[in-house]
Amino acid sequence: MALEDAFDDFTHRDWVQETVDGTVRLAVVGIGGFARNRALPGIAAGRYCETTALVTGSPDRARTIAGEFDVEHVIGYDAFRAGNHAETYDAVYVATPNSTHGEYAIAAAEHGKHVLCEKPLETTVDRAEEIVDACSDNGVTLMTAYRLQTEPVVRRTREFVRDGVIGEVVQVHGGFAHPLLDHAGPDTWRLDPDLAGGGALVDLGVYPLNTTRYVLDCDPTAVYATTRSNGGPFADVDEHVAFQLEFPTGATASCTASFDAHASSQLELVGTDGKIAISSPFGGVVPQDIVVESGEMRTEYTGPPVDEVCEEFDYFGYCVLTGADPEPDGADGVADLRAIEAAYESAETERRVALE
Amino acid sequence: MALEDAFDDFTHRDWVQETVDGTVRLAVVGIGGFARNRALPGIAAGRYCETTALVTGSPDRARTIAGEFDVEHVIGYDAFRAGNHAETYDAVYVATPNSTHGEYAIAAAEHGKHVLCEKPLETTVDRAEEIVDACSDNGVTLMTAYRLQTEPVVRRTREFVRDGVIGEVVQVHGGFAHPLLDHAGPDTWRLDPDLAGGGALVDLGVYPLNTTRYVLDCDPTAVYATTRSNGGPFADVDEHVAFQLEFPTGATASCTASFDAHASSQLELVGTDGKIAISSPFGGVVPQDIVVESGEMRTEYTGPPVDEVCEEFDYFGYCVLTGADPEPDGADGVADLRAIEAAYESAETERRVALE
């Protein structure tokens, strides 16, 4: 592939292979800030999904939001688990606290509904595998909501890497800092290890982790991690984490995440014959700025922004409608949890932890 | 400090405190590519040093270079060690293979000559400490040649950090890749562990290591490292290294270095209230591009380039002439070797290694 061709049609949906009609009717389970501010508008802006139900513990608040987004049904959690009103939706988007993903995803699968589940898939490998099994047993599609995998700048980066534009990847640097308490109170479930399964690593570190795995198209063989907390609201979780991954190709990834630092993110890959640097890849609104160096050639590209959340829901809807297997499937979500569990073990033991 | 003031006079030599006359007469010991292409022109362009002697094992080649740079004396290594022609210089710049730094630096100190010694100071902590002791015993100035410490963009970064422009530093990413065999044959001493003391970590990793220590103004308390070699010309040393440092402030630094990847370097500091990213800080010709985010403010600055090697020699000359202690002193060089030894131990044992 010539570099210039890649930039010609940077945001094209390479995953669309056929024309499909209809939409997937979605129940959005859990109406937190991300669901309201990003997911519901993203679904509304897209083509292959529509929100037909909100599942919530706060029916009054949900009814206001339902009005705003023209959603017909508001369902309580108990009714949802019981399968009441299941005829109003074809699939669910689970956006509840991490430790409840299994409960809702498995209930949905048992009612024959396809599942798009927020990352991390659950709080442990075992619990995540229960989701995978339930979806498999019930013959429904399971996608882990890694929005970065439908982000054009990340998809193009994977293509560059696959096509050898930067040679063999040698070293990756990835970081994601997001000052949690600027956007949430200290009682947020993200700071409760039982509900969240961990701290900055689980919530933010999973972005450089998953994106690096996706771009390199392989899983880490070992991890080392250092976690740190200054106490206070962060007393029970990792406020900051630095971790280093080894891949079977020999590449390493040096990653960081922080709940309590200036909002910023970065991803840079250095290969034997070039490098790729993406500006602010993880913050949710990606500027599509990418620098690609290949041999003597250097290209800086700033693409038209896309709504990656809209891309994500449309990708899920397209997969459900066509019966395609989503790339960020359940196994993908489990692989990250395996790395996360190993990273926490490493932080505890101060040793490199090998992964199967 | 207001950010805009810092950019007003970005390249000023803040280390010049008084007017001094005269120059330091330098013997350049070891005439490799860096000495010829960067050091001799840098000294010639500067104000406080002049090259009066070349010390070499290849007198014919040295005479050509001496002619080119108008250097009066060419001295053989044996004669140099014996102190012959010591009256022709006041100080030495040692740019020989790493494991010979001690031999020449100590000989110079014993002849009462000040020493500017290339990094790493030697191949082990013990050998480096012998240099420190010899210079101390003989009352001569010792500077480790960390050119980055006289690089304006790095000095300004340290000032920003000191002044709290980005709050407390939380996480650093630093990397330096330089394809060695594009510039040297496979028989280069840099690939001989006895002469070099190690591979990419020693030769390149020392840049993000030292620069991070300098900017944070403290020493690491622990290190973890992974090294890798694909064999061939790199069989005996680390071709690639990824290492993670912990600092007493709680900050971490995620660093990489490679002898066999696309030429690139980066340094990024994320703090509680901002971030600083320097483009291509380590490659020797620094574009003076820096992005500083402080709270809501973002500044991108591209300064006039300076010759950082000229800065380095002038800084050394100024210190010798005024009797000032150079900041990159012998202890600074020893501290890096301590971290490097611990990193190699970590790579061997697959464990975090604590530093005293």
UniProtKB/TrEMBL annotation, chains A, B:
<dbReference type="InterPro" id="IPR049838">
    <property type="entry name" value="XacA-like"/>
</dbReference>
<dbReference type="InterPro" id="IPR050984">
    <property type="entry name" value="Gfo/Idh/MocA_domain"/>
</dbReference>
<feature type="domain" description="Gfo/Idh/MocA-like oxidoreductase N-terminal">
    <location>
        <begin position="25"/>
        <end position="145"/>
    </location>
</feature>
<dbReference type="GO" id="GO:0047061">
    <property type="term" value="F:glucose-fructose oxidoreductase activity"/>
</dbReference>
<dbReference type="InterPro" id="IPR000683">
    <property type="entry name" value="Gfo/Idh/MocA-like_OxRdtase_N"/>
</dbReference>
<feature type="domain" description="GFO/IDH/MocA-like oxidoreductase">
    <location>
        <begin position="154"/>
        <end position="276"/>
    </location>
</feature>
<dbReference type="InterPro" id="IPR036291">
    <property type="entry name" value="NAD(P)-bd_dom_sf"/>
</dbReference>
<dbReference type="Pfam" id="PF22725">
    <property type="entry name" value="GFO_IDH_MocA_C3"/>
</dbReference>
<dbReference type="InterPro" id="IPR055170">
    <property type="entry name" value="GFO_IDH_MocA-like_dom"/>
</dbReference>
<protein>
    <submittedName>
        <fullName>Glucose-fructose oxidoreductase</fullName>
        <ecNumber>1.1.99.28</ecNumber>
    </submittedName>
</protein>
<dbReference type="Pfam" id="PF01408">
    <property type="entry name" value="GFO_IDH_MocA"/>
</dbReference>
<comment type="similarity">
    <text>Belongs to the Gfo/Idh/MocA family.</text>
</comment>
<dbReference type="GO" id="GO:0000166">
    <property type="term" value="F:nucleotide binding"/>
</dbReference>
<keyword id="KW-0560">Oxidoreductase</keyword>
